[in-house]
Amino acid sequence: MTTFSKIAEYSAKHPKPADKTFAYGTAGFRTLGDTLDSTVFRVGLLAALRSQSKEGKTIGVMITASHNHERDNGVKLVDPMGEMLQQSWEGYCSEIANASDEQVADILGSIAKAEAVDLSVTPRVVYARDTRPSGPALQAALEDGLAALNADATNYGIVTTPQLHYFVRCLNTAGTPATYGEPSVSGYNHKYGQAYLRLVNGKPHPSPLFIDAANGVGAPQVRSLAAAINSPYFNIKVFNSDTETLGKLNMDCGADYVKSNQRQPPSMELQPDRRYCSFDGDADRIVYYYADAHGAFRLLDGDKISTLIATYLRDLVVTAGIDDLQVGVVQTAYANGSSTSYIKDTLQLPTSFSKTGVKYLHHEAEKMNIGVYFEANGHGTVLFNTGAVAKLQQATPQSPAQADAIERLWALRDLINESVGDAMSDMLLVETILICKGWSLSQWDAAYSDLPSRLLKVVVNDRTIFNTTNAEQTLTSPKGLQEHVDVLVKKYPKGRSFVRPSGTEDAVRVYAEAATRADCDQLAYSVAGAVFDKAGGRGDRPSEFL
Ligand code: NG1
Ligand code: ZN
């Protein structure tokens, strides 16, 4: 039986900073690491309660701030199937994070009452963190929260965010028909490594893959994966793997740097014919890149990855002869317009758009038989819904080719981390497809040409005055700003631009694309300038090109 009697004593050790308000956003809580002690302690309490509300199923807690600066940190909850926390509980997270120290127990009690939580259930929680310097102290705060409610808690150490999601799913499906794998790093390496080898066996070996691990947790984990695979089919060279030196995490490296700056990290020299990819700081995002024949940097981002995967899956489904198994693609407004046209017009696959943030894409993809979802920044995965699984089970192959395609679809499902976007699992999936097609990165890139695009950040006095509709592509406030953006967009062939407040940083994001690089940059900077002028810009006016 859980009692709340220890909460007051523990809570006093984790006082809330009086001047701070915390909000559980698209990626959980995320802000300066040294302000998060009380929040993480309280997340421990809520994780235990969430587990009790799910009849003692295991809940995950990940301490990370992903691609953000090393001084930031964050925390998010993982629900029993390894998915993001159910949205209706996000409000409870913010409520308890903002309570006064004395109110914490009462608020937890009122949540327990509202959710009719059976407090006699033993809470089970697993947790992990990335390599950030503020991680150990926050982990200690979390452990206090879990101890205050006598949770059965397990520390998974320093692992990637998707690995923690995987562990949670494994733990809650053990012994059921949906069993997912062994809940350990070696179980993870075994599951994905074996599926990969099953798919590529007998094909020619690939050239080495140069991996930028953002000086984060992806570095040791991808090395451990490579040691487990132990095959010329996975020949990697890891760069930016310094997780010890302060200040290096995500600094001028990693998937976010590469995508935002549209260049390789300065620490890596691009050589023609070499293959490169970058993870972000917690290894849930991945982008690929290479130098073309003229030595120019070429990016293969989340859109390129999703179109590669969708094409491959579609072709397999056709070969397998399963008529009504539909492959679809989910994107956000940040998807390059060329990728959307390519999916609709060339691949002729259904697409749908969701709000920014993987949890929204995930829910949209669940509606499809096989739903491929990626954010342009390289965060995404593939879901096989129950309809797809049933169709695969019922399929009766009429030829060896059909049997092989069905077997490959099952193996691909084993290769994919369905709980969440996962840089390492996505990388193995991309490698599989390239090996099976015998493709170089430039052959992959040839499917369609990206429109030049630019993503800018504008710091404003108050980003809460920005409200949007239409999958976040149209501003409803501040008044008049959308009309202004529309006028600017009309000036540029193939122009598109939208403005939305970031859910993870104190800034407003401006996206623009257009037919030429010069037009795109002019459009991006003129929209950013309008945001700055009309909505309380702070610091320097965005003006690199104007
Ligand atoms: P915000 O800060 O809300 O734009 C960013 C990414 C999202 C998502 C979250 C979570 C862009 C433009 N935005 O969100 O796609 O990945 O971080 O990490 O890439
Ligand atoms: Zn991340």
From TrEMBL:
Cross-referenced InterPro entries: A-D-PHexomutase_a/b/a-I, A-D-PHexomutase_a/b/a-I/II/III, A-D-PHexomutase_C, A-D-PHexomutase_C_sf, AMG1_II, AMG1_III, PAGM
Listed pathway(s): Nucleotide-sugar biosynthesis; UDP-N-acetyl-alpha-D-glucosamine biosynthesis; N-acetyl-alpha-D-glucosamine 1-phosphate from alpha-D-glucosamine 6-phosphate (route I): step 2/2
Record-annotated residues binding Mg(2+)?
Answer: 66, 280, 282, 284
For binding substrate, which residues are annotated in this chain's numbering?
375-377, 500-504, 509
> What cofactors does this protein use?
Mg(2+)
Give the cofactor binding note. Binds 1 Mg(2+) ion per subunit.
Keyword line = Carbohydrate metabolism, Cell wall biogenesis/degradation, Isomerase, Magnesium, Metal-binding, Phosphoprotein
Task: Enumerate the spans annotated as Alpha-D-phosphohexomutase C-terminal domain.
Answer: 474-528
Kindly identify the residues recorded as the active site: 66 (phosphoserine intermediate)
Classification via CDD domains:
PGM3
- Which reaction is the catalytic activity of this chain? N-acetyl-alpha-D-glucosamine 1-phosphate = N-acetyl-D-glucosamine 6-phosphate
EC code(s) of this entry: 5.4.2.3
According to its UniProt entry, the function of this protein is described as: Catalyzes the conversion of GlcNAc-6-P into GlcNAc-1-P during the synthesis of uridine diphosphate/UDP-GlcNAc, which is a biosynthetic precursor of chitin and also supplies the amino sugars for N-linked oligosaccharides of glycoproteins.
Record-given protein name: Phosphoacetylglucosamine mutase
